[in-house]
Amino acid sequence: MIKNSSAKHPLKIAVFGATGDVGRETVMEAVARGHQITAIARNTDRLAALSDIVTRQSVDILQRPDLISDILANHDVAISALRPGTGHEGLLVDMTKALLEGARTSQTPIFVTGGAATLKLADGSGHTVLTAPNFLPDAVRPIAEACAKQDALFDHYDDVQWSCLRPPAMLFAGEKTRSYVRGTDTLIPDHDGVARISYADFGVAMVDLIKDADVHHQRLTAGYQTQFAAA
Q1: DSSP states of the chain as a string?
Q2: Which residue of 12, 46, 70, 164 lies most exposed, with the fewest beta carbons within 10 A?
Q3: Distance (Å, rounded) from C-alpha 192 to C-alpha 106?
Q4: For the chain, which ranges sit under pLDDT 50?
Q5: Rounded CA Rg of the chain
Q6: Are 70 and 37 in contact (CB under 8 A)?
Q7: Annotated domain spans of the chain
């Protein structure tokens, strides 16, 4: 259960990975709803435009994992939008584990941006994004494999209030429509058969999850079903 979850009170939310594409959109959506945001990243300069609205905190969670539980203890909820850079994809597992350990110690609910790797294709083949032949370009296979390992971590944290929101196969820079469908273990194809959502609407979907205080220990996804935002 999220502390201070009443709609009458803004939540104190810590957003890790706040300078990435998903992180920035999530921060802006949460701010627009009146929540109090601590935007956390190794380098917070890219959040300069939001400096008067959010609290910025520079933390390298792999170098200072001891700080995480203290940060989370001062917040009602945490969001992870972490994505390591190209060539360092494997760090995603260690970073997510550090956050889950901090959430375990502080007993703070955490909402994690996962990956599409473990989602089943909508064609009924039984294949996932990661296992389907010729589905993934070689360039994105390293992060997909890291996301699959990240996904497996959650099975070891039954005592943590975690939720994982997995994006569809395609995330893109598009407008915010606030019109999306939430699913579970299968890609959600839109009107032309492509599973996608804009970064902006994925941020909306992530903040929407926080309203559902009883949503935990669930792996979910979101995407457009009948239309999509034009890039």
Answers
A1: --TT--TTS--EEEEETTTSHHHHHHHHHHHHTT-EEEEEES--GGGGGGTTTSEEEE--TTT-GGGHHHHHHTSSEEEE---PPTT-TTHHHHHHHHHHHHHHHHT--EEEE--GGGPBPTTSS--BTTTSTTTS-GGGHHHHHHHHHHHHHGGG-TTS-EEEEE--SEEE--------EEESSB----TTS--EEEHHHHHHHHHHHHH-TT--SEEEEEE-SS-----
A2: 70
A3: 44
A4: 7, 228-231
A5: 17
A6: no
A7: 12-223
Half-sphere exposure of 79 (CA within 13 A, CB side): 34
- In this predicted model, what pLDDT tens digit does every residue of 9-45 receive, in sequence order? 799 999 999 999 999 999 999 999 999 999 999 888 8
Q: How far is CA 55 from the centre of its chain?
A: 19
Q: Which residue, chain included where needed, has tokens 């599973």?
A: 195
The pLDDT score that the predictor gives to residue 197 is 97
- What is the reported pTM? 0.92
Euclidean distance between CA atoms 167 and 51, whole angstroms: 28
Q: Are 173 and 199 in contact (CB under 8 A)?
A: yes
